[in-house]
Amino acid sequence: MPQSAPGLPAAAPAGEWQAWRAERHRALTSPTGNLALVETRWLPAGERPDPEAARTGRPHTVTVTTLQRTDLATGEREHGLRFWDADSPAVRHFDRVDVFPYDPAWVLAATYTPVPGARRVPFEHIRDNGGTRDLVVPGDITLTVDGRAYTLSAFDDDGSLLLVFGDPTNGDTTYGAGRFLFVRRTEDDHRVLLDFNRAFVPPCGFSDQYNCPMPPRQNRFHLRVEAGEKLPVLRGGFPAQH
Q1: What average pLDDT does this structure show over 149-160?
Q2: Given this model, what pLDDT does residue 11 score?
Q3: DSSP 3-state assignment of 138?
Q4: Helix (H) or strand (E) holding 97
Q5: pLDDT in tens, 200-232
Q6: For residue 166, with 0-12 CB atoms within 10 Å meaning exposed, 13-18 middle and 19 or more buried, which class applies?
Q7: Please, what sign has the CA dihedral across residues 220, 225, 228, 232?
């Protein structure tokens, strides 16, 4: 079991954590939340998405958005459409996400060392059949957990640092492909906080229409991280992924 580092700000009280959980529930069940994604459609090369045309004739609960990615084989930009249904079966059957009890010992301080110009690190993605996509990792996060030193790679997610990590709970009490955690920056540019009580099930744990990054080798802990979210719970035997 880790011990929170000395000199840390007071760990978020249970009330703050409960508020975070409530916000997670609201976001997951929103009209464009993880549970609402029912289709991701990639278009033929050179074709541009038209979300308004794609939405024509669909129920009023459906929202259509656009997205882009790089084709792994050609390196060309691909365009796609995402279809969200606020009345999807997953939204209607969703009950909650099970969590571990809040534990202040899992609020850990770490050293952050920026990499000049950043670097690109290959991350395997769950729907790429073993292929990797390079993500921008702006710096190294170093810490010691249970006597073992780690150097973690958190990638840039629209200006935030997002850690994709794995541990021996995966496939047992937590989502099999690993979990996500937003890294908290501090006033010290070389110090960050990892509050594993806010580790969360990635989007692909709610819909198989996502293509989530998986934890690289350096982001896999040797001990069980018994903090944060476990697994989604849906009523009536509906599968957690759809």
Answers
A1: 95
A2: 46
A3: strand
A4: strand 94-99
A5: 999 999 999 999 999 999 999 999 999 999 999
A6: buried
A7: positive
